[in-house]
Design a protein that fits this description.
With 326 residues, the chain is of the alpha/beta class. It folds into two domains: 11-231, P-loop containing nucleotide triphosphate hydrolases (Rossmann fold), CATH 3.40.50.300; 236-303, Alpha-Beta Plaits. Helices cover 34% and strands 25% of the residues. The protein contains eleven helices and 14 strands. It has helices at residues 50-57, 79-85, 101-111, 116-129, 145-156, 175-190, 202-208, 226-233, 248-255, 283-292, 307-315, and strands spanning 11-20, 24-34, 39-43, 65-70, 73-74, 86-89, 163-167, 194-199, 211-216, 219-224, 237-242, 260-261, 271-275, 297-303. A six-stranded mixed sheet has the order 6-7-8-3-9-10, sandwiched between helices. A hairpin with a 2-residue loop joins strand 9 (211-216) and strand 10. The protein starts with 10 loop residues before the first strand and ends in an 11-residue tail after the last helix.
């Protein structure tokens, strides 16, 4: 067995391919690396290859070609070492509805070598961590969707994994449950856990990920910090609403030195648009410049490029449901 270097990536993939019957390539020559201690968001629509990739990285599926290493271990040659180092919460996790959350956690602990008082103590710690202490002795069949996802997370944490894989963990959850799970993911990461998060929610990737990899048709089409990716698409636009349409020309003159003033829209005579790299930081200079030219402002709104804009730029299509809040 190889011994991972302390500085080696938590996840490292090179030329990864997975073909299914009929020559369908769900993963097609994927290369990526996730640093230890990072939250990596794997973003893409349904059918893009996200889940297939996660199943390979968690040793549930063998690759057709290429190499994948997790926590310094090869997912094929050292699958047992990989399993000891990772926690996994998949969409299709099988949980016995007749058992209680506490029983499931103790059973999971036993699978990882915890016995007696140690297993009971760890189950109690995790129930408290995910906010299920009061529901811990209830049958899981009576849990809500949010409670089940929190239990999934607790089960994945029993053995204190170095790398945590979360496959679309908030799909179908209400905003309150989603927010609670986000807070727990951030907390785990603050403690040093590397998180590999697959999602089709733009907001989730923006809220949690240090870096994002965008996958389409099994290939990585863009990668980087969310702000960096969005900056490649274009600059933020400031939408300025004026009190008097007669002041629009003066407003455009006043703002010309702050960025690119867009051509006037005859249908909206009181609106002026300014593209500027400053984004929100440019609001104060904009207000000041307009005030110096005697222009009265009703409101200023900032519209920034989104990760869906990035996706559209590199694939020619939009993410499913990108226009709706998750």
């Amino acid at each position: 067995m190889s011994v991972p270097s302390p500085s080696s990536p938590a996840v490292e993939v090179s030329g990864l391919v997975r073909e299914f019957k009929g020559g369908i390539r769900a993963v097609d020559g994927l290369d990526l690396a996730v640093a230890a201690g990072e939250i990596y968001g794997f973003l893409g629509p349904n059918g893009a290859g996200k889940t297939t990739c996660v199943r390979i990285l968690t040793t549930l599926l063998r690759p057709t070609a290429g190499v994948a290493r997790v926590a310094g271990h090869d997912v094929v040659a050292e699958a047992d070492a990989v399993r000891r180092a990772i926690g996994v919460a998949l969409q299709e996790a099988a949980i016995d509805p007749l058992m209680s959350g506490r029983e499931l956690l103790r059973m999971q602990g036993a699978l990882h070598g915890l016995r007696g008082a140690a297993a009971r103590e760890r189950a109690g710690e995790l129930l408290e961590r995910v906010g299920l202490t009061q529901a811990g002795d209830r049958r899981v069949g009576g849990y809500s969707g949010g409670m089940r996802r929190r239990l999934d997370l607790a089960l994945a944490l029993v053995h204190r994994p170095r790398v945590l894989f979360l496959d679309e963990p908030t799909t179908g959850l209400d905003p309150t449950s989603r927010g609670a799970l986000w807070r727990e993911v951030r907390s785990l990461n603050d403690e040093g856990t590397t998180v590999f998060l697959t999602t089709q929610y733009l907001e989730e990737a923006e809220q949690l990920a240090d870096r994002v990899g965008i996958i389409a048709s099994g290939r990585l089409v863009a990668e980087g910090a969310p702000d960096v990716l969005k900056a490649r698409v274009g600059e933020p636009t400031l939408h300025v609403e004026l009190a008097d349409p007669a002041s629009a020309d003066r407003a455009r003159t006043a703002l010309a030195h702050l960025g690119s003033v867009q051509a006037p829209d005859p249908a909206a005579p009181t609106k002026v648009e300014l593209r500027t790299a400053g984004g929100k930081a440019a609001i104060a200079p904009v207000i000041r410049a307009l005030d110096e030219h005697g222009v009265v402002v009703e409101s200023v709104e900032v519209e920034s490029p989104t990760l869906d804009d990035v996706f559209a730029a590199v694939t020619g299509s939009h993410l499913e449901g990108a226009g709706a809040a998750p």
